[in-house]
Amino acid sequence: MHRIIRHRSSSRFARTVRLAPLCATTLLAAASPSMGDTTVVTFDKGNPQGWVGPNGFDGFDGGTWVVEEEGNPGWNMQTVFQDFGIPYLTNQNPAFLGDYTESQSVTLKIDLRVENLKFWGTNVSRPWLVELRDFDLAQGGYPWASVWFKFAQISTATHGEWTTFSVTFDPKSTTLPPGWRGTGSEDPVTYEPRLPPGVTFRDVLKGVDLVAFTTLEPGMFFGFTDHSFRIDNITIIRTPPAVPGDLDGDGLVTSADLGILLAGWGPCAKGSECAADINGAGQVASDDLGA
Asked: What is the C-alpha separation between 196 and 182, in angstroms, rounded?
């Protein structure tokens, strides 16, 4: 198999894989993820699994590669680039796309290492966030509607070593969960970005077309900056909805659950809850058996 060799700034050689640009065509298997899936993108053996980073024209201003060394551990995606900000995107990996509301909760995680972040030679900090975009909900001339969550301000001083960033949320929430904000419209008084009129958090999460981990915070603008980043272990965890009759928590409704229900048959003890009281009526009865 042919490997592309690139001379790195540290004067060492590492095997790298040049990344194709992001496109609207889904190149990966298009099967819908199940409600209880966990997917981790480790970039093993140079496979970006549908994720891309910024690339300059013909190497100008730098680029993004999947490299074999110095990940967390092993293979990772490395970017050395000059621009206003750095986005890592996928509209191709089906595990990160589609209807999030089929899950009870969703967790998004990523490992990041900031090797260089300078503006005109001076160390600076930048926001680091995850953004979920739905192009079908765009209105008013905006290219998409999206919701986003800011993890932290990052810099070489604070995140020069590998750091894991994570957020867990209820995709069925109609209001923005704590820490989340929206884009796709603009507040006419404050000019702050917001969701388009009539669009909710749940609406966006019902049809995610693109996921971005990025330093480009909506409503903010930064100068031309030198970036050297590494990312690894991009993860999505989709927790399946609770099964009402699954009383022992094994993901199945079986005779074991029926045994728990029958053992608790009758009124619940005063001031306490019964594990088998599925409908919350204060007693275990035929309605719970029906559930």
From this structure: 8
**Phi/psi at 100 (5° precision):** -75, -20
Q: Which two tokens stand for residue 261?
A: 């229900």
Distances (CA, A) of 277 to 17, 41, 104, 245, 266: 56, 40, 20, 10, 9
**pLDDT tens digits, one per residue of 143-156:** 999 999 999 999 99
The model's pTM? 0.80
Residue-wise pLDDT tens digits, 19-69: 555 554 444 544 556 666 999 999 999 999 999 999 987 667 799 999 999
E runs forming strands in the chain: 4-7, 13-18, 38-41, 62-71, 74-83, 87-90, 105-119, 122-123, 126-134, 145-154, 163-169, 180-183, 185-186, 193-194, 210-214, 225-239, 266-267, 283-284
Query: What single letter denotes the amino acid at residue 70?
Result: E
CA pair distance 143, 149, nearest whole angstrom:
19
The residue written with tokens 């790298």 in the block is 16
Record the tokens describing residue 227, joined without a space. Answer: 């970036």
